[in-house]
Design a protein that fits this description.
GO terms for molecular function: ornithine decarboxylase activity. With 376 residues, the chain is α/β, with parallel strands linked by helices. It folds into two domains: 165 residues, Alanine racemase (TIM Barrel, Alpha-Beta Barrel); 116 residues, Lyase, Ornithine Decarboxylase, Chain A, domain 1 (Beta Barrel), CATH 2.40.37.10. Helix content is 30%, strand content 22%. The protein contains ten helices and 16 strands. The relative contact order is 0.15.
């Protein structure tokens, strides 16, 4: 927690659960990405945190934007980004949304199948397309496999199809999985990407760009390598697989850009047990999966939780949210150590929550308000 967030909570005392995001952390993260991968263009993944203040800051710093919808494209444009700084990176798009993006000046689109290429050829003629390939997300805390991407061999035919339809076969993209702790995870994906480059080159089609995706982690309960370490590993892999003909590269940090910039203030609503002899306490907070902590699904993301009683003796407990839904349990398979002295009414601070919390918050499930957000 930054001093700015601490002072904001002390002075403002906001009611109910809320997210507080420190723009200074995001500014520093952007500069770190720019230094670690100086030859790569940053396309911030808007879905991670689309707050207008966040987007305006990044646009002013020179960031480009990876958008998943026309609404996100409009958000980026309203923040000051021109259309040439926007990628429509979702591989699943309605044709009318492709047309809407094209009418707004967007000319860079993601695909992973011939059918998606057909839409873009009809609705966005002459645009640049990059094909997403399937990637081993081994080790990632939030894998992103199967739903997006195609086999590298299929990517060759997809991009050939795009070329035949008058589109610019521009490059390859992949994603090594969100919250990827292994800097070497990009190596295998780049090997596959280089094979696609070579095959298409032999067929007279020259690809120019590799989208390295996201995956850069935020620090939660475990330490993660510095961005500089990722940059060095990625550059080494690029040289290994592309030699001296390194293509244009872009990166799409989301969690790594904004995750550590945010913190959620919450409150203990109830502490109970399931029987008189049950050794396990259940700690219920006023925020859960439907209030913004959806990434605790399968206990994938384990957030640091601070309490006013830290330093006291601890014991394992189950942590759950406040809604009348049995799925609203955050940590049970691996119980969470919390102070034995924790009491109903105590405020707790959930760190590393700047990414994928406000946008995952339900509109009004069970009548609970959406997660309030303050950007400072």
């Amino acid at each position: 927690m930054t001093d700015r967030i601490r002072d904001f909570l002390r002075l403002r005392r906001p009611e109910g659960p809320c997210l507080v995001v420190d723009l200074d952390v995001i500014r520093e993260n952007f500069l770190n990405f720019s230094k670690a991968l100086p030859d790569s263009r940053v396309f911030y993944a808007v879905k991670a945190n689309p707050d207008p203040a966040v987007l305006k800051l990044l646009a002013g710093l020179g960031s480009n934007f990876d958008c998943a919808s026309v609404a996100e494209i409009d958000m980026a444009r309203n923040a000051g980004a021109t259309a040439d700084r926007i990628s429509y990176g979702n591989t699943i798009k309605k044709e009318r949304d492709v047309a809407a993006a094209y009418n707004r000046g967007v000319r860079l689109f993601a695909v992973d199948c011939p059918e998606e290429v057909d839409k873009i050829a009809r609705a966005a003629p002459g645009s640049r397309v990059f094909c997403r390939i399937l990637c081993d997300c081994d080790g990632a805390e939030w894998p992103l496999s199967r739903k997006f991407g195609c086999d590298p061999d299929m990517a060759v035919s997809v991009l050939e199809h795009a070329h035949r339809l008058g589109l610019v076969a521009y490059g390859i993209s992949f994603h090594v999985g969100s919250q990827q702790p292994n800097p070497d995870a990009w190596d295998i994906a780049l090997k596959s990407a280089s094979a696609v480059f070579r095959t298409l080159s032999e067929r007279g089609i020259q690809l120019r760009m590799v989208n390295l995706g996201g995956g850069f982690p935020a620090k939660y309960v475990r330490d993660v390598p510095a961005v500089k370490t990722y940059g060095q590993a990625i550059f080494t892999a690029l040289r290994r697989h592309f030699g001296n003909r390194i293509p244009e590269t872009i990166i799409e940090p989301g969690r790594g850009m904004v995750g550590e910039a945010g913190m959620i203030k919450a409150e203990v609503v109830l502490i109970s047990k399931k029987s008189a002899t049950d050794p396990m306490r259940w700690v219920y907070l006023d925020i859960g999966k439907f209030g913004g902590l959806a990434e605790t699904m399968d206990e994938a993301i384990r957030y640091p939780i601070r309490t006013p009683r830290d330093g006291d003796a601890t014991e394992p407990c189950v942590i759950a949210g406040p809604t009348c839904d049995s799925a609203d349990v955050l940590y049970e398979k691996t119980p969470y150590e919390l102070p034995v002295s924790l009491a109903i009414g105590d405020e707790v601070l959930i760190e590393g929550t700047g990414a994928y919390t406000q946008t995952y918050s339900a509109v009004a499930f069970n009548g609970f308000d959406p997660l309030k957000s303050y950007v400072i």
